[in-house]
Amino acid sequence: MTGTEEHRFTRCAAGIVGLALLVIPLVCWATGAPNPLAAPGDTSGRSLAFLAQPTANLVMAGCGLLIAAAAVLRSTAVRVAALGAFALLLDAGALAAIGYLPFMVFSAVTGNADNLAAYLSIPLLMQVAMGVAAAGLLWTLVDRPVPGGAGAHERARVRTARWTAVAVIAPLVYAATRVLMVLDVPGFAVPMDATGKAAGLGLALAAIGGAVLTWGLVRPWGERWPRWMPRVAGREVPTDLPVVAALSVSVLVMAAAKAILGLVSTTSSELSAHAWAWTPMLLWPLWSVSLALAALNYRTRRTTSPQREAAAA
């Protein structure tokens, strides 16, 4: 896809999500149904739960109107404001759904597929759609021609390595705490049954998998597909593929970080009772920013030539 086609797709996604966010609260207001993002009983519908239902409907409609406008207008200011609207509406639901996916798949394979029904939750589907649209809108802001030759290439190489290291360490620290919780290590022990421990191991595996994929930003297989992969083995990895994927995860991590910081600001008893288990999650804002910066510098490194300035000289 060309850059123009990619931007058309991302603007279309933002437009559809914006219209949905505008229509849903109107339907809720007309029918008396609860706002799906102001539903304290649903783990994916809490982002507006601090508001009364009429206010939540009004805020969601306003955000939807702003996001739809960002899909139509080419104004950078409007798109930045729309990203702010997404920041308000997104919560930890989408990232949690990804994190629990290994456990859910394992449960389904072992005959307990009922847990998969949680993935059909309307608030969760809205969170996933908003995450995709937010990442796409962010991409329209950062997808610009990258000037420079050998100097820009070398700076990007160093910065990619630096930010990738941070973006790898953060999820690995989180994974380690989940393993320690499962093993009931003193200081990390949290009351959990066998199902809870299996879910904890699944979260650790998901975090480790994310760290490995992030590591690819500085590895050869992050530029060319590994030999063991059928059909694409040895071919060049499209530059934008890991960049868009990393930006998408960065958006979801930051949304989840908002919920964690909210726990800290309210001095949650759960947080204080199991500080060593939950404190590593305070790294998530840093994880989000470092992942985004690693991806953008990876793109600069891939799209600048180390020989360009030398040839010009």
From TrEMBL:
| Highest taxon in the source lineage | Bacteria
Transmembrane helix recorded as keyword: yes
Does Transmembrane helix count among this protein's keywords?
A: yes
**Organism classification, top ranks?**
Bacteria, Bacillati, Actinomycetota, Actinomycetes, Pseudonocardiales
Protein name in UniProt = Uncharacterized protein
Q: Which organism does this record belong to?
A: Saccharopolyspora hirsuta
Q: Which UniProt keywords apply?
A: Membrane, Transmembrane, Transmembrane helix
Transmembrane portions of the chain:
12-32, 52-73, 80-104, 116-142, 163-183, 198-218, 239-261, 281-298
Report which residue ranges the record marks as coiled coil: none
